[in-house]
User: Fold this.
Amino acid sequence: MNNDRKIAYFSMEVGLETDMPTYSGGLGVLAGDTIRSAAELKVPMVAVTLLHRKGYFYQRLDPNGAQIEEPVHWIVEDFLEPLEPVVTVHIEGREVKLKAWKFEVRGQGDDSMPVYFLDADLPGNSDWDRTLTDDLYGGDTYYRLCQEIILGIGGVRMLRALGYREIERFHMNEGHAALLTLELLREECRGTSRESILEEDIEAVRQKCVFTTHTPVPAGHDSFDAEEVRNALGDHLGLQAGNMIWHEGTLNMTYLALTLSHYINGVAK
Assistant:
């Protein structure tokens, strides 16, 4: 495995194949196009997303014209290769185990770019925890928060477990992945004798992070109640970053990504 890649691209949804329901629309299609372009241009990049075993949803209309949503059933093994490493994240104090599945995006010649899909449907996880990588944009806000813990924090841990130690830039495609910044802050403190975050840690993380935001519409910017966040994340060291992460008493993922990135793209004005 070639683990000398310098860029990690995180996105909640990625459109790679029509029969892989791991995207809902433009955000995922753009993510897939970015990944394909990177493979063609031989950019040393790796991508991370969630598996979404039940996809986004199929929709149909009943005789009265009401929309009915149904899960999308797809055979993961037909498209993706299972990998051995298992990592854990803590949610409500529980250890939630994660594995990864790999998809290779082919570029020119023999070149390819790996995309890793995180999966929580593992023996040993609680029944509820096993559903966390089922539905793209499913469930309530707390379900979404737990998914974003898996994507951001679990994604960084999985890359480390797979041997990616030399990542220089972490690119967040929308705020869904912004919790990766908290995990990077924890890494900055790891190996030191202190248990607090300093300005130098924040600046080191900022220099590693790039953020792309796609819409000014409020619905596109996830925000979570502080009590919910502390309940889910417990004593994760990154929560000590104070005003760098809390905005008006909430964890606003766009604000978090903006304050902890050194470069920001805006897709829509």
Notes: The helical segments are 26-40, 127-130, 141-161, 180-189, 199-206, 226-233, 253-259. The two ends are 40 Å apart (CA to CA). The chain has a mean pLDDT of 91. The first strand starts at residue 7 and ends at 11.
